Amino acid sequence: CGVFGVFNHPQASELTYMALHSLQHRGQEGAGIVCSNGEYLFGARGMGLLTEALSREQLMSLETFPHAIGHVRYATTGGSEISNVQPFLFKSHKGDLGLAHNGNLVNAISVREALEDDGAIFQTSSDSEVLAHLIRKNKSPDKKQRIKTALRQLKGAFAFVILDEDSLTIALDDHGVRPLMLGMVDGAYCVASETCAFTAIGAEYIRDIEPGELITLSDKGIEYDYYTDSRHPNMCSMEYIYFARADSEFRNTSTYTIRKSLGRELAREMDVDADIVVGVPDSSLAAAKGFSEASGIPQEQGLLKNRYVGRTFISKGQEARERAVRMKLSPVRDVVEGKSIIVIDDSIVRGTTSRFIVKALKKAGAKEVHMGVSSPPLKNPCFYGIDVSTHAEIIASQKSTEEIRDEIGADSLTYLSVDAMHDVYYSYGSKGQCDACFTGNYPIEIIDRLLPQEK
Ligand code: 5GP
Ligand code: SF4
Ligand code: MG
Q: Residue 350 C-alpha to ligand 2 middle, in angstroms?
């Protein structure tokens, strides 16, 4: 998912809309905005892409509100239905609360069951709703204290933006699994999952929000704090590899640059010669560029992507995914004909994409097709908010590299090593990474061992 928030700006809802548009790659199943005018909250949300989810009229109705939060949804927990589309808006006689969440809680079921036993009635099947209940149940007279205590009861990955009538609270989990960035636009503070949202609204990127950090925006200005003393940075490796947009920055380095370095490292580890290097558009073009520079093998645009096909990975059912990949990617025949080719993709999950690419390139006349993957073998499901599916579907959790090579029909298959991947991240100032989907070392204990997709 993607989140955004801005406090005290005359065009708050318009900025939020534009920011969400640039975060669309983080979620396409639903979108919404909740605004405050200082007295009460008002929201609009809908299913699908942002342009489908919110109408012009809905946006106009939010026009005069100076504080806003927004969300684009990528379902990892809870079904695809309107009640699960965020931001959530809670009304109570004590005041309104708007809430948007990126990530996945790993103790949401236990916390929810305890709250329900205590009389709470939930409106959604989303894991994110528990936070609102925990905040509301807390008896402390101090608002910030209520939020802090509630956050300490949550385990898992979360980047939260929380809006009430007169303040916006920003919180990142103590492992900092998901990205969250602080910016400023026309003198107003804003927050976004990725810096590409700042570019889209003309905001300045101030810095990355730290694990465990709690930031409050109100009429008093900005207040920096932490909600916990236990902080262990474990930023999601897949954000760099695949998920974030290439122009988005982490600690002032773009994902493009990081991906290029992953490609360079892969070139060092992949002992294969070929005529050309071809990246799978769009997310792997940077890695292919790095591979080409390090190996001296020229990069060519041997595969073209149809921009009007949505995300293939999310399609339900294997047949639908295969059809979507076929519609999305096609070889440029005279570029690949008679050539031995190194194809670079950022990851192999089920193997749908690589299987299709190898077949399509060979059909177009490629002599040899070698697959290079700019991430290590993906073997384990993610419990922290990225849909890499269940064990049964993840090809590398069932098969060896040689078996995968055979299944996708490639002449060779090389993955980047875990060590080389970490070296790249540390060289760009990372203080710690999550690599659980590659290594099985989950940095946050999975309390409710139920896979999001199995719910
Ligand atoms: P596969 O086709 O092997 O199942 O998935 C690998 C392809 O999907 C790669 O091209 C990669 O860029 C993309 N991919 C990897 N992880 C994700 C993800 O979490 N979501 C989406 N939408 N695509 C992914
Ligand atoms: Fe990211 Fe993988 Fe960790 Fe999930 S398990 S947070 S996808 S690195
Ligand atoms: Mg891809």
A: 16
Is any ligand 1 atom within 6 A of the Cβ of residue 357? no
* Region 69-82 average pLDDT: 82
Domains in the chain with CATH codes = 2-233 (3.60.20.10), 255-454 (3.40.50.2020)
Q: How far apart are the C-alpha atoms of 86 and 102, rounded to whole Å?
A: 10
Six token digits for residue 92: 């109570």
Q: Which range, of 164-168, 189-193, 308-312, 326-330, averages the lowest pLDDT?
A: 308-312
Our mutation pick for probing the ligand 2 site, out of 1, 178, 435, counting the most ligand atoms within 8 A of Cβ, is 435
- The residues that bridge with 47 in the sheet, in sequence order, are 30
Q: Is the peptide bond between 346 and the residue preceding it cis, with omega within 30 degrees of 0?
A: no
> Confidence band (pLDDT; 50, 70, 90) for 452?
very low
Catalytic residues: 1
Q: Which string of b and e fits 245-270 if b means at least 16 CB within 10 Å? A: bbebbbeebbbbbbbbbbbbbbbeeb
Nearest alpha-carbon partner for 369 in 276, 451, 448, 294: 276
User: Is residue 193 a contact partner of residue 159, using CB atoms and an 8 Å limit?
Assistant: yes
**Where is average pLDDT lowest: 143-157, 219-233, 306-320, 328-342?**
306-320
Task: Answer yes or no: are the C-beta atoms of 421 and 376 closer than 8 Å.
Answer: yes
C-alpha 241 to ligand 1 mean position (Å): 10
Calpha distance 219→38 (Å, rounded): 10
Task: Output DSSP code: residue 241.
Answer: I
Rg (CA), the chain: 22
With a 6 A CB cut-off, is 242 part of the ligand 1 pocket?
yes
Ligand 2 atom showing the smallest separation from residue 381 Cα: 5
Alpha helices for 313-351 (secondary structure H): 318-328, 333-336
